[in-house]
Write a structure and sequence with these properties.
Radius of gyration: 17 Å
Helix content: 10-25%
Number of helices: 7
Largest sheet: 7 strands, mixed
Strand order of the largest sheet: 1-2-3-4-5-6-7
Length: 234
Amino acid sequence: MKTIIPGLHTFTGLLVGRVYCIEDPDGLTLIDTALRNTAGNILKQLVASGRQPRDVKRILITHAHPDHIGGLPLLKEATGAQVIASAIETPVVEGRAPIPGRPREQLSAIEKLLAPQPSAMPGTPVDRQVKDGDFLEEVMGGLEVLHSPGHAPGQVAYWQPEKRVLFCGDVMSTMMGRVRLPLPFVTIDMAQNIRSADRLIRLNPLVVCCGHGVPLTQDTSQKLQAFTRRHHSS
């Protein structure tokens, strides 16, 4: 585990997808779970840091894509944690609905080869559904839930206003210090995703924890404004 700021950590070596760990008074909160085969790595890192699986009290899901909920069944079993997700994403998290994708006719020939076929994930019961404007008082001193659709219909971001820490899921990602949009062929509605990004950027976060890439902790405002200029230039 690597510390981002005091009380907030991220796991290393997960191959695809970021998982975050928040220290709360009653235990730990995880945000997302990466791929199925990374669950063991996450648990090993928890134990190596002096914690136990049962210290995890909550698992927050940003959206129900395989690189965000793949590890959820095993982590739920190992930790007994409460699973929290949006109502829109809940059927996919629970394995009752396939992961929604862009209509095939909207994809280029190469995107059709890359885009996954509609399929359902192994299901995990959702213990608590959240919506835009809800507050998770017990997490990080209070996290606000922000509906952030586009990449996935029910994607949510989590915002800590006092610390100005944003967990944005796949609304944005980072690569080589630059903020980027998610991959188009796994994004339902890119125009809507950009509107969600605009809303989150207006919060003026100091720390941005994306679903992919290194978290932003320095020159965050400048990097976000550069992202905005690129995607709103004429």
